[in-house]
Structures are given as C-alpha cells and as structure tokens.
Amino acid sequence: MSSVTAESAQTTEPTLKKNAITFISNVVIGVASTAPGYSLAATLGLIAAVAGLGVQAPAIIIISFIPMLCIAAAYYYMNRADPDCGTTFAWVTKAMGPKLGWLGGWGIIAADILVMPSLAYVAGNYTFLLFGWDSAANNKWAVLAVGVAWIAVMTLICYLGTELSARTQQILLSIEVFTLALFAVVALVKVYTQNPAGSSHPSLSWFNPFAISSISALTGGVLLGIFIYWGWDSCVSVNEETEDSGTAPGRAAVISTFLLVGIYLLVAVAAQAFAGTKTLANNPDDIFAPIGSAVLGGGLDKLLIISVLTSASASTQTTILPTARASLSMARHGAIPKIFARIHPRHLTPDVSTIYMGVASCLLLVVLTFWDQNLIFDAFTALGLMIAFYYGITGFACAIYYRRELTRSVKNFFFIGVLPVAGGLMLTAVLVKSLFDITKPDSGYAGPLFGVGAPFFIAMVAIVLGGVLLVLCMARYREFFRRTPETAPPDLVARSPAGHESPA
Amino acid sequence: MSSEFVVGYDGSETADAALRAALTLGKELGAKIVVAFGYFPNPVGGEVLDYAKALEEHGRAVLAQAEERARDEGVELEPVLVEEKPAQGLVDLARERDARAIIIGTHGEGPIRGALIGSTAHKLIHLADRPVLVVPR
User: Which residue of A has its CA nearest to B57?
Assistant: First the structure.
C-alpha cells in the first residue's frame, strides 16, 4: 500500500486493483462475439450455394471447426508468451518479425472492415422487414441509408463506452439463442408432421464430409464456414482474466463451443430440411426472410427478425471494438501513427480508432452499394481470405516462437507444435485453393471486375492497400521495424500464468 | 471506521469539484484522501491487455494531477487505480478501507444521458453501504 505525504516531491505509484470476469460473462463473450444469428443468416445460404456441395452444409459446419480448434491452441500458448489478448499483430511480430506482424494486424483490420457492409446490409434490410415494409427492404438506397445509420449508431455506442451495451448484449443473446432454437424445433416438427412443399427429412449423410463431391466444394464451403466461428477466439483470449481461473476459463470455452456448434447444426439442419438447399442458395443474403414466416407464422416470425437484427447490431459492435483495439495495439507498439492509441478522457474508449473504423466502414458500404450491391456479398467472400491469413499465420507463429520447447515433452510437441501448424496448414490450403477459385471471372455475385472474379478483385485491393501502407509505415516507424524475431524463454511453458497447466 | 475519504476522480470538471470538496474536508478534519481512478476494459472486443494498459496510463496521469493538487493544499493523498466498473469499484474500495464516506461529482449527466450510458453517481447511491457525498459542478 503506497501513500504519500504533502512533503514528498515524487509522484506515488498508484495501487492497482484488478477486476475479474465471471464464468457466465465469459461464456456470453465467447458466444456473443461470434453472433450466431447473424452468422447463420448471412452464411448458410452462401454455403448452400457453393457448387457441388449439395446437402452437406452441416458437414461443412463440423469440418470448419477443426482448423479453429487447432488455432485456438496457438492462441492459448501465444497468450502466455505475451498476454496481448488476441493480437495476431503482437504475436507474429514476436515470432516472425515486424513486417509479417504488421501484415497480420492489417489482416484483422481489413477483415473487420470488409464484414461491415454485409452487417449493415442485414441490419438495414431487417429493420424494414420488422415493420413489414418490404418494398423498402428491396430498395438498395433505402437499405444503404438505414445501414449507414446503423453503423453510425453502433460506432457512437462504442465511442461512448460499452457498459450498457455489454449488459444488454447478455439479454440480446438470450433472445437470439432462444429464437433460433424455437425456429429449429418448430421447423423440424413441421417437416415430420406436415411435409411442407420442398421439405425433406434430415439424414445422416448431411453430416458426412466424405460425401462432398469435390475438393473445391469443400474448400469453398470451409472458407465460408470458418466465418461462422470467427470471433470465438476472444473467449480463449479473455481466459486469463476470469474469476477462478484454474478451471473456469477452460469450461467456459468448452461450453460456448458446444453451444455454438449445437446451435449451428440444429438450425442448419432445420432450415435445410424445411426449405431445401435451393431456397437457401437463392437467398444468400439472408436465409430467414423467405422461410421465417412459413415456419413460425402468426406474428412469431417477427421474433426471428428481431433475433437477426439484434445479432447483427451486437455483431457490428463486436466488430468495431476489436478493430479499434487492434489499431490501438499497433499504435502503442509504434507501428502506426500514435493518434490511434488515443483514449478519450471522459469515455475511456479508443476514440480515434473507433471513429476511423466507423467512417471506413460507412465509406466501403457506400462505394460498394453505388458500384454494385452484389459486391457486398463478394466482400464477404473476400474477407474469408483475410481471416484464413491471420488465423493461419498465428498458428505458424506459435510453433516458430516455441520451436526450442517443442521437443521437451510429447504434450508440448502436440499442443504447441502439431496442432497450431496443422491449423496453419489447413487455413493456408483453404486460402490458396480459394484464391485460385475466385480468380475465375464468374466467381462473384457481381460480374467480373477487370477480368477477374469480384471477390478476388476486392481481396487484391485489400492486400495491395496493406502492402502500400506497410511500405509507408516502414519508412516512418523505423524503430518498430528494426525489431528482430524472438524465441520463447525456456521456462515459459512450465510457468502457468493463471494457475492452470493444460490448454482450454 | 478509519478517517479516510474515498474520492472518485477521472480528471473531468465535475470530478474536480468532488476533489476540491474532499481536499477541504481533508484539511479541516486532518483526514487522508484516497483518490481512485476507476476503469473497466470491457472484455467484449478482445485485445484486453493493451487497452487496459492504455487506460492504466491514462489513469496514472489523471491521478498525478490529483496528487499535485493535494500537495498544494497540504493534504495527505493516496492514489489508487481500480480496474473495475467505477461505481462498484468505489464501493469496494471504501469498504476495504472502511472509509468515512465516498465523495463523487455528479458528472452533469441529465436523467436521459444517465439512463443511456449510466450515471456513476446514481449507481453509487444505490450500491454504497456508507455515506455518499455527491458534489455538483
């Protein structure tokens, strides 16, 4: 306990009192960050539309989870080395040097910005659907206006501080999960009792990944599938902060994982059984709109709209927050302009980073809508590449950083070496394969741009822009770019940071 | 009961008013002032530690201002960083120190703004187990 008297000339080191996160909030964070309602609405149709995939969407959901699990191991161990809580940027910089680290950080920011137009599109669309104003929901300018307003409101909330929204997020999440479960159960009951037109009974082959007809269908599906788990890692990252950290974080991560996979499979099977893959594939922007009222009917279908709307708005928030914090992190390490590390004195939020994120997202939404509204979905496809890139590179970074520790025990070798590298390799394979696939001129929803598929074009713009910014930063922030790769100190694995030794 | 007063301080104009009131009380009663800066790096959004560090640095700077003021006034002051939601953090700190009272500014939040983003003073009054002095701007 430090105290200071009037005479002392020096400033006293303040006492620091730490907060703790409860078990329930840790589960909520894990599930909320992935936004199940929105992820399903936006992804299931796209997965069903992948050529050659047929009825195997549930199999894709299972397969996509495997690389995420592997990468989670990398997150867990890198978090020990540098508890930076989820900054691929900081970890890759440590393991593989500043340039790759910087690009990893850019990958996070680019992915977050690329997802915003489709989030805003869903939010805008569903706002009109909630009030039954279908003509406006189909008008791209009306959706644009409401979408921009949504981004602005969510940016404002993130700017003002998130205490209230964090609490409401618990309520929103409960509504979301309850509604999705209700939808799935009612849909399945109707499939078995009423045999609605286009319906089919679920079969075990839907879950069989070996029934997928081609490798390109598999990679195309997985590239979309990893998106639905995107954000799940934040649950692993906040582990160290949790109350009773000896056992709680592991359990929280496991529970939110089962919750997520369970919800996804249940809803995917129910939607596919009720409406068939064609209906899903024909409504890639949102699968619930065409079948929601047929399933729930009688006003209850509004519940589904509210569920997706709350999910999309919660997701907008859980997208703005980490982006702003990633740029805050980069600015604090001296890799981008210092202004991005600014903290608002009253709201205690990274205000400059937050506002830049909001403005960049709005600009992208406006540009894509003016150019061709279909590009919003192509941006969504392109962002899968960014996610695969920064998750993958984190996997490799883990094994490289700990390379001298890998041979110390079988456990080390498997959890710190094999799993992260396997995750990295899987994501690299998906990335390379889909890069080739999306170069095809007809690969996007929008027509080809400059002779290549629209998603490829969007990805290239993001990559080239990242490269240009990297070169500019390298010229300006010499000190950061002089950093050299490090390896893990020998006792790091044995040292258990929060009193537990096995990975979550 | 100790002779300490716990003050919530974030460097804002209204927090200054609270600090002024606390320093006056401290001087007149010869009491020690515990100045707390409360911050809560919300884990939703990940990347918690860098954000927490940024907030901590900001908090240190703010507390240093308060210390300077106390030195000028000749009052004993202890700075404390509380990584907890401000209202709950102040209540816990006051209980831990068995403080005489908690002193806080109103922050000038009107009823609507208070309801939207949360008024620390309002929450504090309901949470506290000891006297709370709310100082207007």
Answer: A343
